[in-house]
Amino acid sequence: MNKVLNHLKNNAVIYLIILACIVVALVTLFVNHEGDTKRLDSSQYTPVDIKGIDFLFSDNTAKLLLIGTDTCSATIKYSETLNFEMIKYGYKVYYLNLENVDLDSDAYKNFIKKLDIDYEYNGIKGKFYDFMSNGQVPTPMTVIIKNGKMVYGYIGTMSSQALEIYTELYGVSHGVVN
């Protein structure tokens, strides 16, 4: 009996590590992470398809385009701000879900060429489209289109105040649904 106690005492750290590994493995095995995946409720947005997106640039009307993915946590959180603002001011939000877009397609490449304003993201200066062509597109993106071209863009989540300022500045939030 003394041999067993001495053995356990001398190897206690090893047994604790093994026990911790077993606990972590069991928790990982039995916790269902699939049900944890939140999805964006985009039902209040007007969906746009990459092949038919050119209509956004076809007139002088100011439009707001959200570029994101249904599983992006930042896009999901940002949608709360967008939903409040679009209800408050009564404008449409067009939504391009990048999960449904082939980023190597000609349609996508032609679309992003239209997003040609100067922009700085994470300390890097370039055109807005530069940050959409590396295969890992940061989302969400807010784009305002007016007079047939992009006039404003933002990568990330905007505050409610900033969204109000820019939608008013560019004429998106005049209480008229486009």
Gist of the model:
The protein is α/β, with parallel strands linked by helices and 178 residues long.
Protein architecture, described:
The protein has 178 residues and is α/β, with parallel strands linked by helices. The protein has 2 domains: 2-31; 46-169, Glutaredoxin (3-Layer(aba) Sandwich), CATH 3.40.30.10. Helix content is 35%, strand content 19%. It has 5 helices and 7 strands; from the N terminus they run ααββαβαββββα. It has helices at residues 2-10, 12-30, 73-89, 106-113, 160-169, and strands at residues 46-47, 63-68, 93-97, 118-121, 124-127, 141-146, 149-155. The strands form 2 sheets. It has a 5-stranded mixed sheet, covered by helices on one side.
Principal-axis shape equals elongated
- CATH fold assignment of the largest domain: Glutaredoxin
Number of domains: 2
Average predicted confidence as pLDDT: 85
Low-confidence spans: none
In CATH, what is the homologous superfamily of the largest domain? Glutaredoxin
Structural class: alpha/beta
SSE map:
Layout: H1 2-10, H2 12-30, E1 46-47, E2 63-68, H3 73-89, E3 93-97, H4 106-113, E4 118-121, E5 124-127, E6 141-146, E7 149-155, H5 160-169
Jot down its keywords:
35% helix; 2 domains; 178 residues; Glutaredoxin; five-stranded mixed sheet; alpha/beta
